[in-house]
Specification:
The protein is of the alpha/beta class. It has 19 helices and 16 strands. Helix 1 packs across helix 2, helix 3 packs across helix 8 and helix 16 runs antiparallel to helix 17.
Length: 622
């Protein structure tokens, strides 16, 4: 039976209450396996404690997700392994019937909280079922892959919460990295899912004193009733050895309310455990067989402030997503578009660039050369202006960091540079290298132009920009690891304050004019005034770089600007340039801390009445 093109992939989600299985092919086609006319294969099995006692509750094994240590079987571990493999054996047979041959690529969904012991158990179960060595895919990762495949926008570096509510609940926080999704935190509670609701409904319908045997016999009827009550106001529940009873939606509401509250609390705790806030999340998604329980979405929204989305066909999401994990699409190759900066971003690149050229040009043309005995000479250079030219060159290169990264990625065969984080990281590193190279070039050209040793020029060009360079490299590391994308994006983060740059350049230009202009008697007042105004502007520029609130700018600018204006002189010019370099380094440190490392938590948004974002994966420790 030809269902698709190429070799098939079999994805199996062994939930605690049932098994879902999906076949997928390279052309994107997929087929949900059905058993007895329904997609889920209910895997609850009985293992007799002795061959005379089949069906006793003490011999109940819930399914492949429960290692033999967790089963209540009274027989040997080998018999438990054989019985729990039977659902997978049936899945393998059905998949072979559909494909026409055994499927070699098998993926099995497991909870994110499973450790090595439980994963080994699942591999043993798959081997006993006759399946090839399976690839174990964590349920929330499979859900995230499904979201991507269905067009949900999840940028590299974004964070998701997946609330997987099946027989139990597992809430997981994920981050999309350059090569896939990474689990940051996961919390599980086996008593916060459909099983707890079934028990509560059983208490309401057949009484709390009913024996375990009767409860086990009525389990299927109660489970079917629970699923029907999601969309019907009342249903009739047939019971063994007694007349049928009526279950209504009010009973389901009452049974589901504690479970919904517990899932909401798990969601809140998982986000906190990942050291994130609701404002950092790209979405909260609810999946699993019990994702559509009453009050679940509203409880999550109330506790976290983020309205969750219940994914369509929530019970099948993990199986569908696992089928696409690691699948290679050879028909499409990712193209890297080189962005054309808008006018505002282009100005953020051009303004410090032209400012740097203007400062170094004035520095070279106005430097005073002093001959000594007609052979040797000394040069009086405005070291402050020289330093600011180097600082402006670095700021211009950093503002162009994202463009540089895209240009490099478009010509690079390395896949890591084609992700958003990879492009930004490479772009920042390239910008730092280019900025330092330009500053060094300023030093070499100036020293050669005057015929002087290069050492002092390198010192004044490179040391002041070292703190900014180090912090920019730290940002490149953050971008590469996709730890936290800044609010407003990387382009906005890398753009230096244009107003401060223009004010500082104008101020230093006036200072240099006052220090080097010919002091004719009728122009002395104008020249001195220009120098004081330049110092005043430079002080204002320092405050503009360091302080953001307008009121504080006014308060701090006045005294600092007056001080800078008062100390304008040839000896103080270098100090003024270094002060501005320190202000720029402070600005960068503040951005790195407040936008990336410790961003201000966003106020929780009011729960909306529309769909909610949430994601779920079935839990289990080990």
């Amino acid at each position: 039976m030809d269902m698709g093109v190429g070799e098939a992939r079999l994805s199996i989600d062994c939930g605690s209450a049932g098994t879902q299985a999906v076949l997928a092919w390279a052309d994107g086609s997929a087929h949900v396996l059905s058993f007895d006319g329904h997609p889920p294969l209910h895997d609850a099995s009985y293992l007799p404690a002795d061959r005379e006692a089949a069906g006793q509750p003490a011999a109940f094994i819930p399914g492949p997700r429960h290692p033999v240590e967790d089963a209540t079987a009274g027989d040997t571990g080998g018999d438990a392994l054989e019985v729990t493999a039977s659902p997978l054996r049936r899945v393998a047979a059905e998949a072979e019937r559909v494909v026409g041959q055994p499927v070699r690529d098998v993926r099995v969904v497991v909870p994110a909280g499973w450790g090595p012991r439980r994963r080994t158990w699942m591999r043993q179960v798959a081997h006993r079922a006759g399946l090839p060595q399976p690839r174990l895919v964590e349920a929330p990762v499979a859900v995230a892959e499904y979201l991507l495949a269905t067009g949900v926008r999840v940028p590299v570096g974004a964070f998701l919460v997946v609330c997987d509510v099946g027989a139990g609940a597992e809430v997981t926080v994920l981050r999309r990295g350059p090569t896939g999704f990474e689990v940051l935190a996961t919390l599980a509670d086996t008593a916060a899912g459909g099983t707890a609701v079934d028990h509560a409904l059983a208490d309401a319908l057949i009484g709390v004193t009913t024996g375990e045997g009767q409860r086990a016999s009525a389990a299927d009827s109660i489970r079917v009733a629970k699923e029907a009550l999601v969309s019907h106001p009342a249903v009739t529940v047939p019971l063994p050895d007694r007349p049928p009873v009526i279950a209504n939606s009010a009973m389901l509401d009452e049974a589901a309310r504690p479970v919904a509250r517990r899932v909401a609390q798990l969601t809140q705790d998982a986000v906190a455990a990942a050291e994130l806030t609701v404002g950092d999340l790209a979405g909260v998604y609810c999946v699993g067989g019990s994702a559509q329980l009453p009050h679940l979405a509203s409880a999550v929204a109330e506790h976290t402030g983020a309205a969750p989305i219940v994914v369509p066909e929530p019970a099948l999401v993990a199986a569908r997503g696992a089928a696409d994990v690691g699948a290679v699409d050879t028909g499409t190759a990712e193209r890297v578009e080189v962005p054309v900066p808008p006018v505002r971003r282009a100005a953020a690149i051009a303004v410090p660039g032209f400012a740097s050229l203007a400062l170094i040009w004035q520095c070279l043309l106005t430097a005073e050369q002093h001959q000594v005995l007609g052979v040797y000479y000394s040069v009086s250079v405005n070291w402050g202006e020289f330093t600011m030219a180097a600082v402006m060159a670095l700021l211009a290169c950093l503002a162009a960091g994202t463009v540089l990264g895209s240009l490099i990625a478009a010509r690079s065969p390395t896949p890591g540079t084609r992700t958003e984080g990879g492009r930004v990281s490479v772009g920042i590193l390239a910008a730092v290298s280019l900025g330092v190279a330009i500053a060094g070039l300023y030093a070499v050209v100036t020293s050669q132009y005057f015929g002087m040793p290069v050492g002092p020029y390198l010192k004044w060009a490179l040391w002041p920009i070292a703190p900014v360079s180090v912090m920019a490299v730290a940002m490149a590391v953050v971008a590469a690891r996709q730890w936290r994308a800044p609010h407003g994006g990387w382009s906005a983060l890398l753009a230096a304050p244009t107003g401060s740059i223009v004010t500082a350049t104008l101020g230093m230009g006036l200072i240099q004019y006052s220090l080097t202009a010919d002091r004719w008697p009728d122009r002395i007042l104008w020249i001195d005034t220009a120098g004081r105004v330049g110092g005043f502007l430079l002080g204002v520029a320092v405050v503009m770089a360091v302080v953001t609130p307008l009121m504080f700018r006014f308060i701090l600018a006045a005294p600092l600007a007056v001080i800078c204006a008062a100390i304008v002189s040839k000896r103080a010019a270098g100090m003024l340039g270094v002060i501005y370099a320190i202000a720029v380094a402070t600005w960068w440190a503040t951005r790195l801390w407040s936008r990336v490392i410790r961003p201000t938590p966003s106020a929780p948004t009011a729960p909306s009445t529309g769909p909610a974002r949430a994601g779920m994966s079935l839990g289990g420790g080990g």
